[in-house]
């Protein structure tokens, strides 16, 4: 009986955690709306961003193109807990952290070799149909840049 109670409790905890991730407004596929965006010159275009649950973590997959038209595939898997997790596929960053500010807002920080390269704020619109990603940082030439990318939910 005790084993059954423990197993049932663990199953309910797992379902509750999965339910929390599933209700996250960031979940799903987001497409860049270039007409509404203000991308910094030379910035990588993140054309498609996908958020999906992987166990108790979130996986963010980005498909984009560099300023010279080369394809980019970036992946990050972690929690929105403010801790840094490895990032792959991004020549300018090797780790990233996200922190949940409220139900519709995330703040992120990216690093390369331990040095902060950018700070990002992601805000999902109240209707859940779009999101605005504002990033400030330093480009590969050491110049300060700000990018505002608007995405529409698919």
Strand order of the largest sheet: 1-2-3-4-5-6-7-8-9-10
Secondary structure tally, helices: 1
Distance between the termini: 47 Å
Radius of gyration: 17 Å
Order of helices and strands: HEEEEEEEEEE
Which shape, going by the Cα principal axes?
A: globular
Number of strands: 10
Instruction: Assign a percent range to the helix content.
Output: 10-25%
Secondary-structure-derived class: mainly beta
Features:
single chain, 154 residues, mainly beta, ten-stranded antiparallel barrel, 10 strands, 14% helix, disordered N terminus
Outline the structure in words.
This protein is mainly β. It is built from one helix and ten strands. A ten-stranded antiparallel β-barrel has the order 1-2-3-4-5-6-7-8-9-10. Strand 4 and strand 5 (85-88) form a beta hairpin. Mean pLDDT is 87; it is low at 3-22.
Strands, helices and their partners?
Blueprint (H helix, E strand, L loop, with lengths): L1 H21 L5 E5 L12 E10 L2 E9 L5 E8 L6 E4 L6 E8 L2 E8 L2 E10 L5 E9 L5 E10 L1
Describe the structure in brief.
Helix content is 14%, strand content 53%. It has a ten-stranded antiparallel beta barrel with strand order 1-2-3-4-5-6-7-8-9-10. The protein is mostly beta strands and 154 residues long.
């Amino acid at each position: 009986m005790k084993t059954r109670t423990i197993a049932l409790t663990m199953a309910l905890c797992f379902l509750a955690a999965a339910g929390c991730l599933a209700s996250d407004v960031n979940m799903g596929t987001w497409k860049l709306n270039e007409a509404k965006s203000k991308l910094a010159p030379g910035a990588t275009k993140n054309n498609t961003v996908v958020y999906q649950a992987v166990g108790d973590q979130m996986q963010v997959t980005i498909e984009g193109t560099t300023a010279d038209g080369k394809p980019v595939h970036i992946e990050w898997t972690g929690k929105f807990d403010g801790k840094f997790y490895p990032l792959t596929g991004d020549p300018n960053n090797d780790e990233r952290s996200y922190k949940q500010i409220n139900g519709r807002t995330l703040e992120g920080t990216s690093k390369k070799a331990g040095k902060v390269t950018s700070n990002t704020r992601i805000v999902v619109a109240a209707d859940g149909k779009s999101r605005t990603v504002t990033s400030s940082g330093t480009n590969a030439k050491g110049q300060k840049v700000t990018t505002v990318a608007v995405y529409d939910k698919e």
